[in-house]
Amino acid sequence: MYHIAICDDSKEYILYLSSILKELEGNINYKIFEYSSGEELARNMDRGINYDLLILDMQLGGMDGDETAEIFRKRFPYAVLVFCSGVRQPTIKSFKATPYRYILKQQKRQEIMETLREVMTEVEKNSSEPFIMAHYRSTVKKIKLKNILYIENSKRGGRIAVCPNCDEAKFEEKLLVDKKPEELANELKEYGFALSQSTYLVNMNHIEVIHVDDFVFDTGEIFKIARAYQKSFKEEFARRFSNKYI
Fold first, then answer.
1. d(CA 223, CA 72)
2. CATH fold of 131-245, please?
3. Which pTM does this prediction carry?
4. CATH number of the domain at 2-128, please?
5. pLDDT tens, residue by residue, 93-138
6. Domain segments of the chain: what residues?
7. 75: closest CA among 39, 95, 45?
8. Rounded to an integer, what distance in angstroms lies between the CA atom of residue 230 and that of residue 215?
9. Is the CB of residue 152 less than 8 Å from the CB of residue 81?
């Protein structure tokens, strides 16, 4: 199910957009969350909901659209963002939140419908990329598998280490999962993950070079391969990347 937030100080316009989305529904399963101000949306970002799409009025009273978008983007880096407005044009600050589309409220219904059809296609595309759910503070976040370097043992499960330049690296605290690396190994094997030690599940897509008892990440970090895992780790690496590296 997709979670769609519509933030607009006009209840009528929220209902209008909802009716258009309903016409587009088809096989799309979604739930709409309505907010009348940026402050109300910000307060509800800790409810454990992973928003897939935000349609945001740029001309809100109090916290304006730019400020609301900035807060939203920090919390939901992969959600699709759409601005809407009656008269206001996007600013440089607006584009820092990477909006996908911009809707003018005076556009004809058919034009808005076509825009939202493109938007929902992007939402579906976003959601189809492999990810894992991780705990961040009191919320749950989608973490793209391609951005994970490794998952290591933590007290009650695993801790995710991500690439330094990906969006997930902006999170200020630990990203945690409920399962230990050994428990996740079979689930993530098809995506290029393998155990280098009983306490480390490694994303082999980020390995630059592999040696007898260690390997080098594309970040320059060097990790050891435990003796008990050297054979299986290298075999899995060779099976997956033999055409590229050997």
1. 35
2. OB fold (Dihydrolipoamide Acetyltransferase, E2P) (2.40.50)
3. 0.64
4. 3.40.50.2300
5. 667 778 889 999 999 999 999 999 999 999 988 877 888 889 887 7
6. 2-128, 131-245
7. 45
8. 11
9. no
Helix-helix angle 11-24:109-128, to 10 degrees: 70
Dist. CA 40–CA 185, nearest whole Å:
40
Tell me the two tokens of residue 203: 């994303």
Q: How many residues does the chain have?
A: 246
How far apart (Å, rounded) are the C-alpha atoms in residues 148 and 235?
A: 21
The first and second tokens of residue 193, run together, are 């993950």
Residue 120 CA to residue 116 CA, distance in Å, equals: 6
Phi and psi for 73 in degrees, rounded to 5? -65, -35
User: What pLDDT digit, counting tens, does each position of 8-56 carry?
Assistant: 999 999 999 999 998 886 667 889 999 999 999 999 987 778 899 999 9
Catalogue the E-assigned strands of the chain. 2-7, 30-35, 53-57, 80-85, 101-104, 131-136, 139-144, 148-153, 158-162, 175-177, 193-197, 200-203, 207-210, 214-217, 222-224
CB 162 within 8 A of CB 155: no
Torsion, Cα of 89, 71, 132, 122 (10° steps): -10
Supply the Cα-derived Rg of the chain in whole angstroms. Answer: 21
